Amino acid sequence: MALLLKPSRHLSPAGRHPLLLLRGLCEGAPSPPPPPAASPPPLTREEANLLDALHAALLDHRRAHPAAQLPATPPFEPIPSLPPTISGMIPSPTPPHLPLHLLRRLLALHRGVPFPETVAFFHHLVPTLPAESLPELYAAMIDLLAKHRHFPLARHLLDEMRERDIPVSSQLILALVRRYVRADMPSEAAELFRRMEEYGAGAPEPTALAFILTALSKKRLASEAQALFEGYKSVFPPDVVLYTTLVHAWCRAGQLNEAERVFAEMQQSGITPNVYTYTAVIDAMYRAGQVPRAQELLCQMIDSGCPPNTATFNAIMRAHVKAGRSEQVLQVHNQMRQLGCEPDIITYNFLIETHCGKGQGNLDAALKLLAKMTAKGCAPDCHTFNPMFKLVLVLGNIDAARKLYERMRELQIKPNVVTYNLLLKMFNKEKSMDMVMRMKKEMDAEGVEPNVNTYAVLIEAFCERGNWKRAHSTLKEMVEEKSFKPSKLVYSMVLALLRKAGQLRKHEELVELMADRGFISRPANDGLCSVLAAC
């Protein structure tokens, strides 16, 4: 890394580059989504209460009718009808923004979306709403369907918008394109992208092409990105943004030879690589373990008059963090300071992760970095705190965990599911069931969805305390509502507790439920009877 200091004549603090899309690529941050639609008007207290009631009613109806399915193929009939118990709750006239609030709340769910009921709700209300409210409502419904891979019905609604002359925005098309890419359906994504103008969303532009190339890159679909890039060369000449995005796609796919080919083609076309182009390749080389080549390219970058920026150093730092090379991480940070590159949140998070990792375990150093970054106006996030929570869990320092959580709340940082899982484990380990339940309650209030690990910790906590009712109901929620597959250890723990409590009927029902979901092999009747008799 001493090579960094060699060509000092070229080095100067790197300013913020306007190509935010490419900065996101090189820093490993999520690619920017299409510009979000304006938020719907806020709800009154009465409307908020109605929204809560409708949301609960849709979920309750889904629990009571789990076998109901959406029509999967055209003509998508019959569309499910809205149950009278739900339609009777809807006022007339309906506040136009209420359905949009409901769809956006459902969009936040990762699992357990009541699709038949939601589609019925949508079709029940559309004829009654003013025309100006329909574009956003259709867009939200289409995005909800596409998120959960109900693409045929999503495209049916998109075609319906065109037929009914409901305006289709470019943001809607790009959001659907991104959903296709995430579902590993690049052909469908490219086909819809090419048909933007058909839907009245305007002709594709270079920024839109960069967006879809970025989406393909994140899924490591470099060949598909290359084909789309080639297909649009004659429409608008490639620039540094498009070439860099394609270079990054090949880097993400782990095909450095192809990335270098595009890099060379870019230079031959008279387009000068920028800091983000170099950073993408340097990052890929480090990830591939080609450290000498990465250092050589870094020197070439500097010699060409292109100084590295924070994103470049973050890429180098990331490789050392993932390899557990703590000394090298700190060396990179020192060189950043020498070269005038200000650390950002990614830099600080890497440094904190390093201090909290194996071989370091230095909570005080991590806390000093937290204080330093906040003093410099760099706002931390949940990823800043999670390594520290992991460390205090290992140390078993519950007081430190409490203080850290209080500090997180002081800074108005929203925990994510990893944060809550670590806290649940910590408080369960310390036999503090009150805090376990408090964390779960706050998690629900924050709208943070539990995952498999959340349920595992809760079930373990209930089982350790002999609370078979809560253990049983939590496992049922995990399987029925969230469709999560519990580990053998988790469901065996609950079954053992049910046998011990003499709850043989619930034991049998739970075994049947697990078998119905395909999570375990269905036991033979005589085998099940013998198990129950042994209880």
Describe the structure.
It is a single chain. With about 525 residues, this protein is mostly helical. The longest helix has 20 residues, at about 45-65. It has 28 helices and no strands. It has helices at about 20-25, 45-65, 85, 100-105, 115-125, 135-145, 150-165, 170-180, 185-195, 205-220, 220-230, 240-250, 255-270, 275-285, 290-305, 310-320, 325-340, 345-355, 365-375, 380-395, 400-410, 415-430, 435-445, 450-465, 470-480, 490-500, 505-515, 525-535. Mean pLDDT is about 85; it is low at about 1-35 and about 530-535. The protein starts with 19 loop residues before the first helix and ends with a helix.
Number of helices: 28
Structural class: mainly alpha
Averaging pLDDT over every residue, what do you get?
87
Number of strands: 0
- The general outline is globular
Largest sheet: none
Summarize the SSE layout with pairings.
Layout (H helix, E strand, L loop, with lengths): L19 H8 L17 H20 L19 H4 L10 H10 L7 H11 L8 H14 L3 H13 L6 H13 L3 H9 L11 H13 L3 H10 L8 H13 L3 H13 L6 H13 L3 H13 L6 H13 L3 H13 L6 H12 L6 H13 L6 H14 L2 H13 L6 H13 L3 H14 L5 H13 L3 H14 L6 H13 L3 H13 L8 H9 L2
